[in-house]
Structures are given as C-alpha cells and as structure tokens.
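User: Let's play a game. I give you a shape written as tokens, and you guess the letters that built it. Ready? Here's round one.
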C-alpha cells in the first residue's frame, strides 16, 4: 500500500511539473477534436512533431472537383467527349470512400533521440479503423512469428500481412460502378484465365489466395562461403569475390497448392528429387547447382498443416527456424533494435549492421568492374596490334560507376547499425513505429524503406491498371529476350476498353461494312472518345520505321488515313460471340499457320492478341492455342477463331514489297 501511495504521489508530481511547462493550447472551442486521439500515439517534445486534421477535406475536394468539371463544356473536348462525359458523371466521393480515404480524420508524426537511435512514429486516424486500401496491410494485430522462428545471428527478418484479395474486390466494385456489369465481367473474364496458356490454375485462384502473410528470415552463414566470379572482358584477372553463403527461409500463407502443381510438373523430369514426409511435400530442383552456388540445397515445399508455401536455402537452416528456439531474442543487436517497439502488429522488419556491410562490399565490387577499362590491344601473329578479344559485356543492370556506388553507400550509411520497424493496425487507425539512426526530419523516405508494407507498396505502384484490372508488369523490367514488348499490351487493352464503350454507346458490335482499319479507329473516336492515334502503331513495326510521311497524333488529324497501322481488327461479330475466346485485334502479320511473318512488328518472335472480353495475351506462336469458333477445338488458324460472317480488317503492307536485289560482280 505504501509503495502504491508513493507511486501515485510521484505520478501527480510529474504531471504537475509537466503541466506547468506544457505548451499552451488554444481555447477548447477552437481545438481540433482529433488532436488528442492522435497525440496519444506520438511523443511530444522531440526532434519532430507534426499534426494535421483532414476531417472532411477529402469529401470537400471531391465535391469541388466534380463541381469544376460540370463547368467545362463537353464541346471543348471534341473527340474525347464521350470519355469526358463519363468522367463528369463519376461519383468521386463514393470511390474515395470505397478506397478508404473518406474516413481518414487526421495524421501525425514524431521523432526523438533514444540512445543511439531515433524513435520514429507515424499515425493515421481513421473513423472505424482501416478501410479500403488501408486493409491491405492486414486487420487483426498478432504476435510476430519471426521473433520465435529466427535463429541467433539472423541478419534480416520480416513478416507482413497482405490482403490483396480485398483490393481485387474493391477494383471489381469500382469497375462495375464505372462501366456497369460489363466492367465487372471484364475483370472476371480476365481472372478466370490462367496466368499463361496451359497453366493448370487461374489468376482468380492466385488472387483469392492473396489474403496471406509473407515471412522471411535471412542469415549469413559462418561455415560456408560463395565464390562469386568477377572476371569480365574488361578485367580478366579479377578472380572471385568471396561472400558468406546467404541462408534463407521464406514462406507465403495459403499458397501450398502452387507447390502441388509444381510437383506434378517436376515429377515428369528425369532426376527430380521429390520429398513427401511428415506433413511436407516438395522437391529439390533437378540438375546440378551452378559452381558459384555450390553449398545450396534449395527446396520448394508445401507445409500441409498450415497450407504455406516455403522456400529454403538448405534443410539445416530450415530445421533451425522450425525449432522455434527464440535465438534471435538473445542477439544484442536485435534487442537494441526492437527496444520499446510494440510486440504485436501486422508488419515487422529487422536488419542487422552486417547486412549493410555486405551490401557495401557488393556495391563496390560491381562498381570496380564497371569502371575497369577494356584490355589493351594484343599482338597479332604478324606483329600488328588488334583489339582485345571481344566478349559479352556486363549486363547494363549490373553496371554502376564508382561515384554512383559511393553515393548509394553514403545514402545508406545510417543503416550501418541495426534497425527495426513495426506496422500495426489499431481500432482507430494505423500506427508505424521504428528505431532508426535518423529522425523523420533527417530522411522520411529512407525511414520507410525497411518497412515491408512500404516495400510492397512500391512494388504495387509499378502495377499497370486498365479497366480497373491490376496486372503486375515485372516482365517489363526483366524482358531480356527478343519478342513482343509487354508495354504494347496496354495499347491493345485500351483499344479493348474503347470497343466496350463503343458497344455500350451503339448497342452492338462494329458492322462488317466498316471502312478498313482506319475506319475502325475513326468509329471508336467518334462514338467512344478514343482519339489517340498512337494506340494503333508499334514503334518497331517496319511499316512505322519506313514511313516517310507525317505520323498522326490523333485519329482526327489529317495525316491519320495515311498513317501505318500495326494491328489486324475484326468487325461484323454476332451479338452472342463468345467473349473470352473470340479475338478482335492482334499484331499484324499472323499467318494461318499460327506464326508471325518476318516483316511483322516483332518479326517472327511473336505478338499479342486482344480478345472480346478485354484481356490480352502474349504469344511466341499460337499453334493449337486458339479455339475454333464453331467446333471449340484447338486451332492455330486465327480465321477459324473468328465467327463465320465476321470480317478481318488487315493493314496495307504494300510499302513493304522489296525491290529485286542487284547482284554485284565479284572483285
């Protein structure tokens, strides 16, 4: 009792002392009603303190935008009138509410110095808790699994709840609001297709599994090293860079079914090593590991008890993680990085100081190879000097000038000490708390980098959206093989959207009497507002490259009728045409044998096909991958996939006719 009394007395004295020195508040009638709700999560008096009340601002902005749009006459937009009219009629406030922005009441952030790090906090106050896009990071906080799984010496650990499935539902809802049942049908039609032809599962199955949790644990091994070859034509004597073998354990909830599909394919290969034991199914990739990856024994596994998909570097490391020995909690760096952070949440990340050191080593090694001059000329047998032996260059993505590498290292220098962050949903909002070597003032962006939710957001920001349908376009960043440019797929998608709008405006398909490919585009411009002429040409198309006349920017331009056209189109379809299997546009040059001609926009390496439901597929060839419109059987003939009576409009390729080559006499 005496101790409680002393404690209470001390608390009163502290509060009195703080009250005497506390900053003055505005009169109660002028105070923001949300200030204290945000302040309870922040730290007042440190290096940074910020607060902003945004209650009602989103609705007011939406109303003002809609009011402003009503003042602009549609006649000012000519060919885009139909599209502009649709924008004017959108219920902006309803969409912002669905996205979860309308219930955001206030924002706040704070930083203060705690030992060698800053305690950084940010809070978003939301009426009724996270809604819409804010639910992507999960809803119910939980204990962090990495805190029990990660073994001692772990250098990087993260886990993040991800409800991407809710985003799909949200996009479907918005597409229906914008385009009616057709919009929703386009989403469903695309998702009911496999990611690539022949795959035994659909995109919808993937999306429905994305109410998930991603977890990763990485540790630099002390018993094994990797010898990364640095020898290049520019530096033939560079030898190898020695780094620790990087052990890893990654898991993704609800994706075990994917491993089962993979097993069924791997079993067909000679030498496949399939694992089925003690509630685990999986396999070791067939074939030997590359020399510089010796030491790895990676498995792709399905943990049947949890439904997780698991990828591991070596069984020994997986066993350490599954032992749940709480070893990471004995590490001084982990203890320092997590001091004072919430022990429950929806996202967590931790990075040791050794992770920064290894990154620095790799950056400098790559930079040294990029800056090394080419080898000197060598003496030919006759004594003349010839250039050094040609050989493949280092990939452009791996090149980095030394000054750039040093700048990156300097920028990342604060991470030469352990850092940790937590993302946590609350009943009244979302909280971000981190121990980092800089305050919000010093580097707000870098303060978010270790947070897995922010990293996921950056990845999602590189997602293209058309008709409300998300499509991850990582292929655009790793498309190293020759063939159709994935960026051109979006042009066909926009043509598909315009065609759907044309059908809504006219009540049917484009008639068979349409005057050629240019007439098709004019119809979409007049009745669907699609006036962008660049949608109909591909940069690599020989027709475009060799065209000597003007290139039209708009379908309404005088130069458009003479502009080269890169797509074949279909008109005169019956009203009941099968949407998911009927092609309506494709990269020109596709023959009846299912292959593209040498003079097609991408040569004979492939092309794209737009189907009536709005989805676009990329093909190297289409042999047996289309469906005969009448029989439903596989076909390679694009003409048989189109309804009888429909008309295929082909671009004029007469300008590609070659003159006979003149044979030069031998010297």
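Assistant: Ready! My guess for every position:
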């Amino acid at each position: 009792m005496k101790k409680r009394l002393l404690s209470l007395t001390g608390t009163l004295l502290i509060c009195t002392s703080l009250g005497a020195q506390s900053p003055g508040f505005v009169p109660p009638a002028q105070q923001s009603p949300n200030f204290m709700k945000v302040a309870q999560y922040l730290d007042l008096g440190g290096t940074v303190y910020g607060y902003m009340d945004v209650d009602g601002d989103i609705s007011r902005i939406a109303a003002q935008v809609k009011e402003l749009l009503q003042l602009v006459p549609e006649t000012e937009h000519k060919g885009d009138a139909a599209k502009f009219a649709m924008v004017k009629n959108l219920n902006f406030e309803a969409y912002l509410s669905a996205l979860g922005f309308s219930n955001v009441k206030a924002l706040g952030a704070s930083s203060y110095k705690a030992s060698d790090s800053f305690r950084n906090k940010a809070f978003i106050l939301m009426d009724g808790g996270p809604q819409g896009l804010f639910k992507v990071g999960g809803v119910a906080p939980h204990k962090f699994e990495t805190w029990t799984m990660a073994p001692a010496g772990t250098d990087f650990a993260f886990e993040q709840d991800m409800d991407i499935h809710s985003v799909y539902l949200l996009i479907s809802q918005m597409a229906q609001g914008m385009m009616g049942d057709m919009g929703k049908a386009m989403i469903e039609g695309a998702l009911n297709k496999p990611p690539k032809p022949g795959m035994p599962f659909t995109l919808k199955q993937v999306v429905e599994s994305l109410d998930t949790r991603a977890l990763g644990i990485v540790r630099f091994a002390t018993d094994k090293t990797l010898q990364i070859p640095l020898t290049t034509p520019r530096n033939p004597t560079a030898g190898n860079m020695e780094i620790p073998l990087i052990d890893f354990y990654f898991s993704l909830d609800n994706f075990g079914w994917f491993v089962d599909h993979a097993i069924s394919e791997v079993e067909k290969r000679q030498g496949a090593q399939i694992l089925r034991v003690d509630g685990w199914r999986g396999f070791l990739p067939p074939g030997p590991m590359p020399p510089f990856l010796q030491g790895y024994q990676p498995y792709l596994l399905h943990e049947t008890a949890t439904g997780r998909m698991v990828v591991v570097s070596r069984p020994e490391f997986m066993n350490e993680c599954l032992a749940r020995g709480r070893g990471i909690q004995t590490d001084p760096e982990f203890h320092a990085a997590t001091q004072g952070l919430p022990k429950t949440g929806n996202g967590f990340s931790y990075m040791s100081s050794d992770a920064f050191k290894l990154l620095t080593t790799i950056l400098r090694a790559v930079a040294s190879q990029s800056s090394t001059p080419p080898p000197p000329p060598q003496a030919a047998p006759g004594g003349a000097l010839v250039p050094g032996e040609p050989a493949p260059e280092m990939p452009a993505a791996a090149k980095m000038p030394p000054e750039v590498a040093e700048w990156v290292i300097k920028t990342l220098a604060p991470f030469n000490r352990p850092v940790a962050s937590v993302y946590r949903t609350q009943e009244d909002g979302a909280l971000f708390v981190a121990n980092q070597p800089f305050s919000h003032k010093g580097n707000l962006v870098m303060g978010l980098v270790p947070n897995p939710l922010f990293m996921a957001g950056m990845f999602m920001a590189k997602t293209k959206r058309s008709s409300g349908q998300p499509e991850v376009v990582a292929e655009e960043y790793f498309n190293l093989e020759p063939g159709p440019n994935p960026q051109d797929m979006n042009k066909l998608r926009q043509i598909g959207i315009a065609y759907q709008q044309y059908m809504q405006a006219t009540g049917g398909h484009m008639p068979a009497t349409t005057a050629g490919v240019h007439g098709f585009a004019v119809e979409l411009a007049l009745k669907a507002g699609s006036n962008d002429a660049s949608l109909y040409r591909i940069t690599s198309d020989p027709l475009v490259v060799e065209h000597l006349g003007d290139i039209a920017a708009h379908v309404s331009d005088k130069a458009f009728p003479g502009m080269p056209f890169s797509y074949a189109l279909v008109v005169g379809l019956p009203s009941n045409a099968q949407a998911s299997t009927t092609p309506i546009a494709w990269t020109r040059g596709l023959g009846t044998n299912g292959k593209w001609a040498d003079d097609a926009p991408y040569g004979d390496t492939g092309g794209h096909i737009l189907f009536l439901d709005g989805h676009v597929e990329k093909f190297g060839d289409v042999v047996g991958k289309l469906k005969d419109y009448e029989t439903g059987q596989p076909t390679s003939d694009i003409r048989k996939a189109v309804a009888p009576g429909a008309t295929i409009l082909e671009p004029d390729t007469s300008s590609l006719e070659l003159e006979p080559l003149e044979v030069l006499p031998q010297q």
